[in-house]
Amino acid sequence: MDMLDPRWETFLVLCETMNYTRAAQRLCLTQPAVTHHIHYLEAHYGCRLFSYEGKVLHLTEAGVRLQEFTRSMAYNAQKIEAAMAAEAPVSLRVGTSKTIGEYVIAPKVERFLQAHPEANFSLLVDNTQALLRSLEEGRLDFVLVEGFFESSRYETRLFRREDFFGVCPPDHRLAGRQVPLDELLGERVILREVGSGTRGIFEDALRRQNRTLRSFENVVAISDFATIKALVADGLGVSFLYAPVVERELAQGTLARFDLAGAPMNGAFYFVCLKDNLFARAWEEWLA
Predict the structure, then answer these.
(1) Cβ–Cβ contacts within 10 Å for residue 168, how many?
(2) 61: Cα within 13 Å, side-chain hemisphere
(3) pTM for this structure?
(4) Of 4-18, 215-229, 252-266, where does the model show the most confidence?
(5) Which homologous superfamily is 162-263 in?
(6) In the structure, what pLDDT confidence band is assigned to residue 1 with cuts at 50, 70 and 90?
(7) In this structure, are residues 176 and 256 in contact, taking their beta carbons and an 8 Å threshold?
(8) Which fold has domain 6-81?
């Protein structure tokens, strides 16, 4: 953030730490200097950016808006520095949610590396909420994610859509059926961890039928797709996954599909970057 005014940098670090002492330590400033930077910004914009609830520091509504704008400024400043460096190679840091990272994105990565053999490239695979945090902190250029998030905070475009459905062993009583939710409640359900898009899609389908995961007697959380599929194939529970994740198992007959009656599910994968990103058009090839 070399091009960024130090007061903006102070503001962003305080947004991350929500603690004046820790912000001062990270910035190698005195605590009064941090306070002075924040008071300057509040006087300049004529509004409070932070407030205390008890002893806990919170962003005000105006502070949240300024945080969104400032993140974009910091990111663009960082990328401009890199782009203007003499003979700098292409640099790209992509994040994908696990479904996309493990089952969808490989051909895109291959084409990018073939087109840019000197590129500095990194791919981070994590759950949707963790990726959005990394994007906001400037550690990623863009992310490809599934599930639900506050899209108004970002620049987004549809990447692709995929079917989403239940899976069970092929000899299971649910196989090939439209299953009422009440009938499903007695099953052990194996889902991804909290924060994953896959779990969010299923929880949204439950909410549309006025249910939550607390309606189930037995819910297991596992972050690894291979483990989930192996447990389901061995009859230890059922799960809900995107079509690309189980394409091979369905073709081989080791898993079978079922659908949740009255709650059709499909999921969208989205391209997401910070608002006002000056470099977004350079990544059109990923959306082609």
Answers:
(1) 23
(2) 0
(3) 0.70
(4) 215-229
(5) Periplasmic binding protein-like II (3.40.190.10)
(6) very low
(7) yes
(8) Arc Repressor Mutant, subunit A (1.10.10)
Q: Answer yes or no: is pLDDT of 60 > 70.
A: yes
**C-alpha 88 chain-centroid distance:** 29
Q: Where in the chain is the domain with CATH 3.40.190.10?
A: 91-160+268-286, 162-263
Residue for token digits 């108004």? 152
Name the residue with tokens 């994740």.
245
Cα(227)–Cα(221) distance, integer angstroms = 11
For residue 95, list its beta bridge partners. Answer: 124, 143
pLDDT in tens, 95-123: 999 999 999 999 999 999 998 888 889 99
pLDDT of residue 86: 56
Could you give the CA distance from residue 196 to residue 180 in angstroms, rounded to a whole number? 24
Q: Is the pLDDT of residue 174 over 60?
A: yes
Confidence of residue 197 (pLDDT cuts 50, 70, 90): confident
Q: State both tokens at 47.
A: 């509004």
For 126, counting Cβ atoms within 10 Å of its Cβ (0-12 exposed, 13-18 middle, 19+ buried), the class is buried
Q: Do residues 34 and 27 touch, judged by C-beta distance below 8 A?
A: yes
CATH of domain 91-160+268-286: 3.40.190.10
